[in-house]
Every structure is written in structure tokens, then in C-alpha cells.
Amino acid sequence: MEKKDRRIIKHPILPDMIEGKKVTIYYNDMPIEAIEGEPIAAALMNANVRAFRETAKRHEPRGIFCAIGRCTDCMMIVNGKPNTRTCVTYVEGGMRVQSQDGFGVNREVRK
Ligand code: FES
Asked: Which of 2, 26, 44, 98 could pair with 49 as two cysteines, CB 3.0-4.6 Å apart?
């Protein structure tokens, strides 16, 4: 089965999406296809990733909420840097993006 692209290519109000260079980024060590310059969150949504982090106390999943860099629900560890807002951080080829648990200690690291 062919993978569906979930990006909005044509929109009734916004200009058409400009085709960009396809690159690979790594989400929890899994390679995913992304477009250079798009928000990391957009690449993850296109790869069907919905939970980006877990809350500190209850370990509840969080993902995209505001999509403008205000709410912190999309924070992840990007290239080793915790608390990175992935809705306003843009894709570069080879980036390493990890789910964040609480205040920024990756589950794999905390063990
Ligand atoms: S979704 Fe709210 S800061 Fe990114």
C-alpha cells in the first residue's frame, strides 16, 4: 500500500505549497521523510506521529495544540536539546528528534 501524504498541497485561501528538497530525519531512531525547511511537527504529523511528549506528573501524551510556539505541547528533544518547540523549529536533513518525557530527560537516557 502506498503511503499517503497528509500535507495540504492546495488550500482555498493560502498559496500553493512550494515543493522542497526531501531529506531524512530520525524520530526515535526511525528514519522518516521530511521536507527541508518545514516545521518538524509537520513532518511528524505527515508520518502519522501524534504524541510528541509526555507530561511530567501524569505522563499523559501531548502533541500539536497551538502550532505557533506558545503552548509547549510539541516540545521534544532535537539533536540532544530538550524543550525544543517542534512547531516553530524547521527541518534540516539528518536531524535527530526524540520524544520527551516530562522536563526533557528522554526515557532511554533516564534509565
Ligand atoms: S504546538 Fe504549541 S508550542 Fe508548538
From this structure: 44
